UniProtKB/TrEMBL annotation:
<protein>
    <submittedName>
        <fullName>NAD(P)H oxidoreductase</fullName>
    </submittedName>
</protein>
<keyword id="KW-0560">Oxidoreductase</keyword>
<dbReference type="GO" id="GO:0005829">
    <property type="term" value="C:cytosol"/>
</dbReference>
<dbReference type="InterPro" id="IPR003680">
    <property type="entry name" value="Flavodoxin_fold"/>
</dbReference>
<dbReference type="GO" id="GO:0003955">
    <property type="term" value="F:NAD(P)H dehydrogenase (quinone) activity"/>
</dbReference>
<dbReference type="InterPro" id="IPR051545">
    <property type="entry name" value="NAD(P)H_dehydrogenase_qn"/>
</dbReference>
<comment type="similarity">
    <text>Belongs to the NAD(P)H dehydrogenase (quinone) family.</text>
</comment>
<dbReference type="Pfam" id="PF02525">
    <property type="entry name" value="Flavodoxin_2"/>
</dbReference>
<dbReference type="InterPro" id="IPR029039">
    <property type="entry name" value="Flavoprotein-like_sf"/>
</dbReference>
<feature type="domain" description="Flavodoxin-like fold">
    <location>
        <begin position="25"/>
        <end position="240"/>
    </location>
</feature>
Length: 282
């Protein structure tokens, strides 16, 4: 799970720097790695430089440097818990509605409102994101902000999965892993990378409305030499240049007719005889 150490010097690319012909955009990078001199640290520095050289505005939430509090609890409200029993959803809802969230949560929500695109960057640890990043999601995605919004009826089950407060924004994962690419292939021992990342991409990003781009993944981090590092930067640069033009993953929208409501199961005539994560992609 450890990353090889590199230092990116900020050299300017000779490739096309902006896919938007001069239009500036706001990009938030939520970064979760404890070592600034790691491969992840170098990739983050490269991404910031690449985007800023293209004229875009960039903010970085460096969770380890911020000493981000990962646990969701009653102290996330300046008023404490609302009753004798802490209720994560209800207490989150009341704190959000009444402007009584702690400052760190409110600031991250403001960054999400500001951003046109969000990049979650992390090493794949134990088949998921580091705990500190999961804690960022749990605390920042407050009830009324990222979930619990929209009409609930027999035809519309809340504004989520393609709708919601973050609709119209784009999101992408930047992921490193120590395993070989073959380990995460369709028949690989670790399971397909698309399946491992599905709960994050579909559940954390698409749920509140993001258009989700295919992930950028670097494998075998312990074997990254200078040549592979240069290739990785070139590939990442191309992905960043296309951040606003690349086609997002074609997840099915919840309220667009593909699902029976309120059961929220895929209609029988959609992907008949199939099951699993893949059926939720058109």
């Amino acid at each position: 799970m450890l990353d090889i150490h590199f230092h990116y010097t900020g050299r300017r690319s000779t490739l096309l720097l902006s896919a938007l012909k001069g239009r500036t955009m706001n990009v938030l990078i939520v970064y979760a790695h404890p070592e600034p001199k790691s491969l992840n640290g170098s990739l983050k520095d490269f991404a910031v430089t690449r985007l800023e050289n293209a004229g875009h505005a960039v903010k970085v939430s460096d969770l380890y440097a911020m000493k981000w509090k990962a646990s969701l609890d009653a102290s996330d409200s300046m008023d404490g818990q609302a009753s004798e029993r802490f209720d994560p959803a209800l207490d989150s809802k009341l704190a959000f509605e009444n402007g009584r969230q702690t400052r760190d949560i409110a600031e991250e929500q403001d960054k999400l409102r500001w951003a046109d695109a969000v990049i979650l960057q992390f090493p794949l640890w134990w088949f998921s994101m580091p705990a500190i990043l999961k804690g960022w999601v749990e605390r920042v995605y407050a009830y009324g902000f990222a979930y619990g919004v929209g009409e609930h009826s027999d035809k519309h089950w809340g504004d989520r999965y393609g709708e919601g407060t973050l609709a119209g924004k784009r999101a992408m994962l930047m992921v490193t892993t120590g395993g070989w690419e073959s380990h995460y292939a369709a028949r690989g021992i670790n399971g397909p990378i698309d399946d491992l990342l599905f709960p994050i991409q579909h559940g954390i990003l698409y749920y509140p409305g993001f258009d989700v781009l295919p992930p950028f993944v670097i494998y075998r981090t312990g074997k990254v030499d200078e040549a592979r590092f240069a290739k990785a930067l070139d590939a990442l640069g191309q992905r960043l240049d296309a951040l606003w033009t690349a086609k997002p993953i074609a997840y099915r929208r919840q309220n667009a007719g593909a699902y029976d409501i309120p059961e929220l199961t895929l209609r029988a005539d959609m992907a008949p005889g199939q099951a699993g994560f893949g059926v939720h992609i058109e």
